[in-house]
Design goal:
Blueprint lengths: L1 E7 L5 E6 L3 E6 L7 H11 L8 E6 L6 E7 L2 H21 L3 H22 L6 H14 L7 E9 L2 E8 L2 E8 L2 E8 L3 E8 L4 E7 L5 E6 L2 H26 L1
Antiparallel strand pairs: 1-5, 2-3, 3-4, 4-5, 6-7, 6-12, 7-8, 8-9, 10-11, 11-12
């Protein structure tokens, strides 16, 4: 996706996949291929940050490593389509300009316009962090766009740190620690009972699934998260079970 240009510094945490005189297509280390231990550690840290996307495009202002990030995304195909657009629509025009300041003015104006247009086209009015989390959520669990993310929190599952995602049809958990990935998905229609138990340092939400009759535990750290989670879970479970019963009649 196009984003409003922001200055960034070159980093060893990124590798250059393609480049030309003015633009760099980069991939975050730890994503894809044989990532090794350093890459696994980086990906573990990235899993807790919703604003770190594995692909980005930079515009190089000058030889002093001043660069603007102008596009970012989870999907390689999407980011490469943005790269092709730049090579087709921008590179020829930049080649005709003699003044670097004119080039920068042109690129920043063009990208700002594209980012503003894309923002208007997105019908969702979600806050920025929720928008970023929604992209990661759908990519991680391969959910369709109709699976709207309502909220997300940091938590633990069986003493494993990660994030819990609450969407219209699912309760989902994702964790990536030292190269080990874990996904837990529970449909609201399968939820039979929810309990909130107080511990010494945190609260535990216990979810029992009808189909497998298993227990999953989510530890939540703040009162704000606890106050939101249980009423929402109960409401979604009741609504989905009521819908399921109507379908059976």
């Amino acid at each position: 996706m196009w984003i409003k240009p922001e200055l960034v510094s070159p980093s060893a945490l990124w590798t250059t996949e393609q480049c030309n005189e003015w633009f760099y297509l980069e991939k975050r280390r730890g994503h894809g291929g044989d990532i090794g231990l350093p890459g696994a550690l980086l990906k573990s840290m990235d899993s807790f940050m919703t604003n770190i996307l594995p692909w980005r495009i930079l515009y190089a202002v000058d030889e002093l490593d001043s660069r603007y990030q102008i596009a970012a995304g989870w999907d390689e195909g999407e980011i490469r389509s943005r790269w092709e657009f730049l090579e087709k629509e921008c590179v020829p025009m930049l080649a005709e300009m003699d003044d670097q300041e004119d080039r920068t003015t042109f690129v920043l104006a063009k990208i700002n316009s594209l980012a503003s247009r894309a923002e208007k086209e997105r019908s969702s009015q979600e806050p920025k962090k929720l928008k970023e989390a929604s992209i990661k959520f759908r990519q991680t669990f391969s959910y369709p766009d109709s699976e709207r993310l309502v909220n997300f929190f940091m938590c633990t599952y069986s003493n494993r740190p990660g994030q819990i995602y609450l969407s219209v049809n699912h309760l989902s958990f994702y964790s990536y620690v030292f190269g080990s990935e874990l996904k837990v998905v529970c449909r609201w229609i399968d939820v039979e009972k929810l309990e909130l138990k107080s511990g010494l340092l945190s609260y535990v939400v216990k979810v029992r699934k009808l189909l497998f009759n298993i227990f999953t535990y989510f530890d939540l750290g703040t009162s704000k998260e606890r106050q939101f989670l249980l009423p929402f879970c109960e409401r979604r479970a009741l609504q989905n079970n009521a819908t399921a019963r109507r379908h059976c009649l």
